[in-house]
Each structure stands twice: as structure tokens, then as C-alpha cells.
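Appendix B, record 7
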Amino acid sequence: MSQVIECVPNFSEGRDPAVIQAIADAVSSVEGVKLLNVDPGKSTNRTVYTFAGAPGPVCGAAVRAAKVASGLIDMSRHTGEHPRFGALDVCPLVPISGITMEETVAHARELARRLADEVGLTVYLYGEAASSDARKSLADGRAGEYEGLAERLTQKEWKPDFGPAKFNSKSGATAVGARDFLIAYNANLNTTSVRRANSVAFDVRERGRVKRTGDPITGEVVRDEKGDPVHEPGALKGVRAIGWFIEEYGFAQVSMNLTSLNETPIHVAFDECVAKAAARGIRVTGSEVIGLVPLSALTDAGRHYLRLQKRSTGLPDSELVRIAVKSMGLDELAPFDPHERIIEWAMKEPGTSSALMSLTTQAFVEKVASESPAPGGGSVAALVGSLGAALGTMVANLSAHKRGWDDRWEEFSAWAEKGTALHTELSRLVDEDTIAFDAIMSAFGLPQGSDEEKAARTDAIEAATRAAIEVPLKTMEASLRAMEITKSMAENGNPNSASDAGVGALCARAAVRGAMLNVQTNCASLKDKGFVAKALERAEKMAADAEKLENDTLAIVTSKM
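C-alpha cells (predicted):
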């Protein structure tokens, strides 16, 4: 899939399981779309759906879901804690991979047109897809909510971008937009007071609170020359927040939208809520994410909390995520399943990625030993290299935590981060090598009846062979860099683990030599001699460097025994 977008529609129904399921079924019925998450809220009476795929199918699924919702949701009877003005209240598109924001905007505008033409909805564009700066803010576009919509539709400046400028009491209006990742994130408080929750929200949100003279609650509002209230900015950029009481939980929350993770990561929002709440005698007991989050949001959080403890951050993503979940109490209200809540992990279809690395050790060995030519030497070389990098990472982590070396934790943490990146890359190459081999076999299986077919087959074989050379070259490069880590750890790391660093160096050296054999084998059949010469030159240089690193590392290890 060359282009992937995410759609996160919010429907104004969070209490009727039949309606919630009907909308979900409408999304799932579209081929090429994966429904990633359905998150209903009883108090908000609102359900957030998250699905992703190529732009065409995703937009088609949004239209199909809107048709179902328009027949099942009656806004004239809707009540809930969350601002809203329509049955399909808001429908943003988010670029995920292989697609620009500009392209996503074009899809959002086409989706808005289809919702108006095919479903009959009144549609406003917002965010990056807005038709004017005055309509960029969702809050401004939804001002007055459903109850004020009939009056707003009579105003010339609020004529909808698509669809009828006539109040529909059943469906209301819909906002369609394009935006970057937005995380709906709530901090749980040990208070039932909405006023106190709002005070924390005003402290942290970018807009802050209305400025007053004298008493901050009862004092006179300070106004500008136009007569509009003056705001004192809050602590966090790109954060919108309000306080509310959630009856089903029995406590208040600070409900936030994090609109820019670059400006305010999730862990910064959590820590700021903790600090501002504590200043008011309130505890943050945990937090919750609504919908899905990008992997980086949680791995960054995991590293942040490890740094606060002065512990090594060179851990696998799964461990960083676990630390983030526990540190921010993301599992306080309900279990937090990373494979369902992290978008990159949720997008993976079972059995389609990391097919080899997901096997048990026994199953992998048996698969190598089978009659099939793949996985073969290339995949095994990458696996051995990943083990070498992992051993170097282990020594770095042990060194970071060694008693008496507390002032060196950052030094070893940096090495561990490098090692983690390398054994992750080499683990990926285990599967990539087999995929490259399969591509060659597929190219050889192409028809060769006509001259055109023969030429196409020859070109396909050449292209697949080049790719099959690049994969072991990547294995060599990553394994060579892993040897730099094992050498440093043998020399400077925990002396009790010097032999582990030595074994890591031997594994990485074996990976370099083994991958080089694959390079040489595939180069022998490639017609592009210029490509062959460059590939062999690179491989020979890395093989020589690896031999020196192995000798140096083993000499260091031997000297410490």
C-alpha cells in the first residue's frame, strides 16, 4: 500500500451497542480498510472510530458509515458531556505514510463533497482543509453546538462548504478536515470537582484562562481595546483542555486534545497536569488515551521516565511502551493493549510481517533445516548479527546500572540505544533476506514466450538480484557497526561481562562474513558489472574492517580474563 491515511470520525452515539456496532460493520465492510479501534463513551454519548488504508477505500468507508449513522442517530434527542453539532460530528483525515498533507487535504475536500451529495449532510471544512482561516478551528466552527445550529445556518458568514444550508434536526452538521496526529488524552483526578478540574485545565492549556483584576475567580474581567476578554496563556503549546466529571468513573478529569506532539508530547502533558494538580492539593491518579497513538509517542515517554530514573534508555520498543503505560497510568481505567492501541502495530495483519522473527527459536531452526531453500544463509547471517548487537546492548545496559558507576549511566545508555537500533534493524533483515530471495524466484517464474515477455523477465530478474545484493550489504553494515559497540563494551563496560562482549563480536563477525558470501553469490549472476564492482568493493572493505575489530576485541577480552 503506497499511500496510507487514517480516518477518525466521531459519531454522536456512545450508549446504544446496536448503533455502535452497525457503524463499525459499515466501516469493516469496505475492502482495503482496517478498523483499528472503536472507543465508545457513555458520559460523552460519543464513539470515536479509527480506521486506515488507502485514501479511496478509507473515504468510501467514511461515506458508508455516515449513511448508516444518518438513519440511526437522532440529534434532537442527543445529550452528552462532549461538544457536538451533528450525528457524524467530526471526520478528520490524517496522513500516515506515503502521502503529503496537501494530498490529504484534497481527499478531505472530496470526502466532504461526497457526504453532502450522497448522504445529504451539511458539511463544514476545518483544519488544514478549511476554506478560510476563520474556519480552521473546530471549536469556532462548532460554536453554539447543535442547539445553536439552526440560527447559525441563517448567517451568511456560516454558509456550509457543502450540502444544504438548512437545519436538519436529525443529522445536524458535520465537520470534515485534514490534520496531523491529534491525541485525545485525559488525566484522571482524585476529585469530583469540575471547578477544580477546570482550574488545572486552564493552567495547562495553551489558551490559558481569562485574566481578571484582583481575585482570579471573582475579579473583574480584563478586556482589550475591542472589548474582548484578555487571556493569560497556559503552560503547554498545542494543547486544548477542559475539566469535566465522568459519572461512570466517579471522578473528574482534565480532558485534553494534544494537537502537536512536537510541541507537547504526551508525557509532558501528563507531567504538567501532575504538577499543576499537586499545587492545588489534587493527585493525578492515572490517564487514558482515546483511540490510537503513534508508537513514537509512547517510546519517547518511556525514554523520558527512564532518564528521570537515570537508567539506560537502550531498550526494545515493547519495554519502552510498558514503562510509558505504567508511568502514566494508561491502564488505570481499562487494560491498555499496545497491539490494539498503537497505530503502527495495529495496522499489521497477523502473519504478514516479521514472519520468521515471530517464530519460536525451535521453529526457526526447524524451518532452516527443512527442504526449502529459504530461509537460508542470508537470514541466518542477519539473525546471528542481531544476536551480536543484542549482546553488546546487554553489556551496555548492565554497565549503566553497575554499582559505583552511577555517573556514567548516560555514556552507556547512548551505547545501548545504538545497539537496540542495530539489533532491531538486523531482525528486520532476517525476513527481508527471505523476501528478496522469493522475489528472485518469482522473477524466474515469469512467462517468456514472446520477445517482450523475455525482455520483461530479464529486467525483473536483474532488479530482483540487485535488491538481493543490497540486503546482505545492509546486514554487513549493521553487523560491522555492532562490532564497534562490542569492542567498546569489552574495553570500557562492566568487566564481569567482557566475555559476553566477546561472544557478541564473534556473532557479528560471522554475520559480516556470511552476508558477504551472499553478496558474492548474487553478484556472479548479475549482468550490471558496474553495480557488481561497487558492491564487491563495499563488501571487501567491510570484511577487512570486521576482521580487525574481531581481533582487537578478542585481545581486549583475553586480557581481562
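Remarks on this record: The CA atoms of residues 39 and 226 lie 42 Å apart. The longest strand covers residues 88-97.
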